[in-house]
Amino acid sequence: MAETATAKRTVKFIITRQDNPEAAPYTEEFEVPYRPNMNVISALMEIQRNPVKADGTKTTPVVWESNCLEEVCGACSMVINGKPRQACSALIDKLEQPVRIAPMKTFPVVRDLVINRERMFQALKRVKAWIPIDGTYDLGPGPRMAETKRQWAYELSKCMTCGVCLEACPNVNDRSSFIGPAAISQVRLFNAHPTGEMNAHERLEALMTDGGIEGCGNSQNCVRSCPKGIPLTTSIAAINKDTTKHMFKKWFTM
Amino acid sequence: MSGNSFYTRKLHSLLGVIPLGLFLIEHALTNYSAFEGGPEKFQKSVHGLHDLPLIFFLELFFIWLPILFHGVYGLYLAFTSNLNTGRFQYGRNWAFALQRITGVLTFIFIIWHLWQIRVQVALGELTTEEFGSKMYDIMHNPAYFVLYLIGVLAATFHFSNGLWAFLVSWGITIGPRAQRISSRICMGIFVIMSVLFILSMFAFRGDEFATVSAVAASTLQLG
């Protein structure tokens, strides 16, 4: 019968684990009962409920991070079968088995699949990825944004600082201080905003210092990897244009 | 590297095209004159270049110093990059990796090539009249021929792909369509320049180049 065949089906996982930030990584194999439409998160939940390895010995539950389970929060980024992506949208039916899961090593590993994406939030602070509107009185409504501009700017606003683009980038590593694609695209977003534009030069200048936009080597893995389909390389090239113009403007007006 | 790497990187990108890329094009054309018109035409091209006024300063500021800076800083940039073509086998990622690999190869090749030709001229061991016969000797050594082939292909690829990256880094080609078209044009430049260099490599193997120094010497005597 089809039902018994389905009930017996299992999914194999090879998971790279690490007990603490300083510990050496190791792999463990798991065999999880198959359920229709399962994703990597539901498989990890199954391992959490029953932390037994494929060889039958007990182990500690695998630790991971996840929140929204609908690919908008960016928390469950991990390397699945060699590619960095969101675990919640990684459907088992579409993955080659055994499924190999590892943390995104570009970031400091906290434990197992949990990484520390602090550098991404620091990068957003560094480029001032916000719009300053605070004042002592009501400033009234800001200037309007053209609908055509709003449409492409909205695509950039989908960034969830998941870190996949940094993991894919060959120039984001411990030998380079490159800020990574995400923050550069956010500069384009906030510089496109009619009120944010008033502080455009501050964001450009932040990218014109060590570890700024010059770190991009145009491998373009970021745009291929972004789970939200953000045109990261277009953003980088557009900001290349803006920083180049800003450089000449500064040279000839100072 | 000290200072602000934004400007260092911009200078690195600019020097790769102007003057180094322009010099590579000039070099390809000078060599190609050996294929088009044999020893006489090649000799004329070489003399035309070496007769330029202020040739020492032209070489210093438009070739030696830019190569030194572009090469040394390029080695540092290659060192700060990871190659992850095993994980991401996209064309552009391969071009990224090859840009760094061909950069290192080109730098080594240029040092060797300068030693063989330019340094020997400076030491008085070689004259510009003997370039043809010197190339005849080099191209008839099978190992040298292969090394020159690798060096020339590395240099032309590094320039052509670097030109593509230059257009992105300076914000000239922004959208995916513009970058796709410029990529095709740059790969066209790679093919054309490689063909020019390879044809001249075969031209230097011709017997007429073996005696070019003798011909030059006899015309000198006649003159």
TrEMBL record, chain A:
Q: What class of enzyme is it?
A: oxidoreductase
UniProt keyword list: 2Fe-2S, 3Fe-4S, 4Fe-4S, Iron, Iron-sulfur, Metal-binding, Oxidoreductase, Tricarboxylic acid cycle
Q: Which GO terms describe its molecular function?
A: 2 iron, 2 sulfur cluster binding; 3 iron, 4 sulfur cluster binding; 4 iron, 4 sulfur cluster binding; electron transfer activity; metal ion binding; succinate dehydrogenase (quinone) activity
Q: Which InterPro entries match?
A: 2Fe-2S_ferredoxin-like_sf, 4Fe4S_Fe-S-bd, 4Fe4S_Fe_S_CS, Beta-grasp_dom_sf, Helical_ferredxn, SDH/FRD_Iron-Sulfur, Succ_DH/fum_Rdtase_Fe-S, Succ_DH/fum_Rdtase_N
Cite the Pfam families for this sequence: Fer2_3, Fer4_8
Q: Which residues form the 4Fe-4S ferredoxin-type domain?
A: 150-178
GO biological process, alphabetically ordered: respiratory electron transport chain; tricarboxylic acid cycle
Required co-factor?
A: [2Fe-2S] cluster; [4Fe-4S] cluster; [3Fe-4S] cluster
Q: Which domain of life is it from?
A: Bacteria
Gene3D superfamilies to which the protein is assigned, alphabetical = 3.10.20.30, Alpha-helical ferredoxin (1.10.1060.10)
Q: Does the keyword Metal-binding apply?
A: yes
Q: What is its EC number?
A: 1.3.5.1
**What does the similarity note say?**
Belongs to the succinate dehydrogenase/fumarate reductase iron-sulfur protein family.
PANTHER family with a match to the protein in the record? SUCCINATE DEHYDROGENASE [UBIQUINONE] IRON-SULFUR SUBUNIT, MITOCHONDRIAL (PTHR11921:SF29), SUCCINATE DEHYDROGENASE IRON-SULFUR PROTEIN (PTHR11921)
What NCBIfam families does this protein map onto?
dhsB, PRK08640.1
| UniProt protein name | succinate dehydrogenase
Question: Which species is listed as the source?
Answer: Cohnella lubricantis
User: What gene does the UniProt entry assign to this protein?
Assistant: sdhB
From TrEMBL, chain B:
Pfam families, sorted: Sdh_cyt (PF01127)
Q: Where in the cell is it found?
A: Membrane
Q: Which UniProt keywords apply?
A: Heme, Iron, Membrane, Metal-binding, Transmembrane, Transmembrane helix
Q: Which GO terms describe its cellular component?
A: membrane
Q: Name one GO molecular function term.
A: metal ion binding
- Principal localization reads membrane
- The highest taxon in the source lineage is Bacteria
| Keyword Hydrolase among record annotations | no
Q: Binding of heme: at which residues?
A: H27, H70, H113, H158
Q: Key word tRNA-binding present in the record?
A: no
Q: Gene3D superfamilies in the record, alphabetically?
A: Fumarate reductase/succinate dehydrogenase, transmembrane subunit (1.20.1300.10)
So where does this one cross the membrane? Answer: 54-76, 97-115, 145-173, 185-204
Annotated protein name in UniProt: Succinate dehydrogenase cytochrome b558 subunit
